[in-house]
Amino acid sequence: TTDWDPIRLRRGIGYVIQETGLFPHFTVERNIGMVPSIEAWPRERIRERVDTLMRLVGLDAALARRYPAELSGGQRQRVGVARALAADPPVLLMDEPFGALDPITRVELQREFRDLQEKLGKTVVFVTHDLGEALFLASRIGLFDSGRLTGVYTPEEFLSSVDPAVTAYRAAFRPFAGARS
Predict the structure, then answer these.
(1) How far apart, in whole angstroms, are the C-alpha atoms of residue 96 and residue 14?
(2) Among candidates 21, 49, 20, 18, which has minimal Cα distance to 33?
(3) pLDDT digits (tens, 9 = 90+) for 135-146
(4) Predicted TM-score of the model (pTM)
(5) Do 89 and 11 meet the contact criterion of CB atoms below 8 Å apart?
(6) Phi, psi of 148 (to 5 degrees)
(7) What integer pLDDT is reported at residue 96 of this predicted model?
(8) Beta pairing partners, 144
(9) DSSP label at 12?
(10) Running DSSP on this structure, what letter comes out for residue 176?
(11) How far apart are CA 32 and CA 70, in angstroms?
């Protein structure tokens, strides 16, 4: 059936995008509490959820009243992840969330996110053009070629596949072939 309520469907998916998409005129706590607010959660429940998520993503409570412009790139990305998790959605959609970060912060957040995902057990659709990132974070890798899904692989299957699209993509990222740890 396709008669879903698009608003209910949208609120069941947490989104994290490359530039975080935070509201610049909202504090950290208001950004994180946005969806629970829209869902009419009681204020105390929202406050508790914001506090819990800030700890979970490694943000100091003192940052709650700051605005996105007052945060580092890594802190903004952590706020974006916390906001995506705020209403406890079963699915997260992450569109190149670490792409705009410096390499050191990017690796740090990839590790933290992998640990967080294992802890929470959420379904995550993670879009990336970085093969090393895909091999590190994914349990399954879907390869798109010219807008068409050409296959879905475990990281191990991806590394050993003889499919021409996979071998061509892998060849472009040869330095990352051993990135999975």
Answers:
(1) 14
(2) 49
(3) 999 999 999 888
(4) 0.80
(5) yes
(6) -120, 135
(7) 86
(8) 149
(9) T
(10) G
(11) 16
